[in-house]
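Quick one:
INPUT:
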């Protein structure tokens, strides 16, 4: 099979996002060009490890994918080899498949596995490390809520998509003297709402870290109108919640390790604003549009640096580590330090202070 060549593996788990293919390409090229290693990709995240579905990656298979969104390997935000879900007699039953996974990796003569993902994917990677699988991690998520790194790849591209949408919504807001509410992703962390709101000139930004007072939100809309600003742009994270209220759950996915899917808070905020201020209001939910499309130049470069960095970690046998960005430098951090505690927006951060200085309302003051 592998002959004398060392073999490494790669899988992409969790939600897709722009830049994953750039990571796969960088890992494969660095492995092949710098070390003459063989590389296999597992299909659909951890499902491929359990279902024994893998493919050898070649220079040809990773060619022309740098700018392409999604993942050529497929992904899953349900598959967990340590808690493998199967429906038996109409009942959801869970199995530990870690022994089968280790046996499959032995058969493939795998020296290391690169796991590309967010908190869920990397938590599983860390548990597989404990079972004896040599893993390294690469931080991915549009939410940018993974600890241990300044930024995850995919976030910048999602921000760019949201800013483009906000810019377009601005014209209708201005022309029709309306409030335009735009709901962006971000379950627990408001990075996407804050960054796109700041870059898109959002007048009101509602993030999960700051429960909002709807009276305050409406007062801002009315005050702006009083100053001749007859429109307002409201950017709402899907995980935002009113003071004393709760997140809006859209769906529960029974066989997912993280079953809650949010959505709909934008509509609630929009309805309240229209009722309480009398200003005509429209709501746009961006949803999975934010996860699609071509990565930004920033994400292509970051993803490439992360991929090459992960191969260097394997070369140095630094298993259990995740590549990360600190300032301008690619470094690494134990995966155990990155998972289990989400990186929320610090409410006393410079970014928040900057937004407040230009008059952004967060519904709290
Ligand atoms: O974690 C990434 C993310 O896009 C969240 O922002 C969002 O809440 C969730 O995934 C949506 O998941 P799904 O693709 O299962 O609907």
């Amino acid at each position: 099979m592998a002959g004398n060549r060392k073999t490494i593996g790669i899988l992409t788990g969790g939600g897709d996002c722009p830049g994953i293919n750039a990571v796969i390409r960088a890992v494969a090229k660095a492995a092949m060009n710098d070390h003459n290693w063989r590389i296999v990709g597992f299909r659909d995240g951890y499902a491929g490890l359990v279902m024994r579905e893998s493919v050898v990656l070649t220079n040809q298979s990773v060619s022309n994918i740098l700018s392409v969104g999604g993942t050529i390997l497929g992904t899953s935000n349900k598959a967990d080899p340590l808690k493998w879900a199967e429906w038996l007699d109409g009942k959801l039953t869970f199995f530990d498949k870690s022994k089968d996974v280790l046996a499959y990796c032995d058969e493939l003569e795998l020296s290391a596995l690169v796991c590309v993902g967010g908190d869920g994917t990397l938590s599983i990677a860390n548990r597989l490390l404990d079972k004896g699988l040599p893993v390294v991690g690469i931080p991915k998520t549009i939410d940018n809520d993974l600890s241990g790194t300044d930024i995850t790849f995919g976030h910048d591209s999602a921000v760019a998509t949201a800013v483009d949408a906000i810019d377009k919504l601005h014209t209708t807001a201005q022309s029709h003297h309306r409030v335009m509410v735009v709901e962006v992703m971000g379950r627990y962390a408001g990075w996407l709402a804050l960054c796109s709101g700041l870059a898109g000139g959002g007048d009101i930004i509602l993030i999960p870290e700051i429960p909002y007072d709807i009276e305050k939100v409406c007062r801002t809309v009315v005050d702006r109108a009083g100053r001749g600003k007859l429109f307002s742009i409201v950017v709402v994270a899907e995980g935002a919640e009113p003071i004393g209220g709760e997140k809006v759950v859209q769906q529960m996915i029974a066989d997912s390790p993280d079953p809650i899917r949010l959505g709909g808070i934008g509509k609630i905020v929009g309805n309240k604003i229209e009722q309480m201020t009398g200003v005509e209001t429209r709501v746009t939910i961006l949803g999975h549009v934010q996860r699609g499309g071509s990565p930004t130049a920033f994400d292509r470069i970051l993803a490439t640096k992360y991929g090459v960095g992960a191969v260097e970690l394997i070369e140095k046998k630094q298993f259990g580590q995740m590549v990360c960005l600190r300032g301008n430098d690619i470094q690494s951090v134990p995966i155990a330090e990155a998972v289990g505690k989400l990186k929320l927006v610090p409410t006393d951060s410079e970014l928040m202070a900057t937004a407040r200085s230009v008059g952004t309302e967060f519904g709290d003051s």
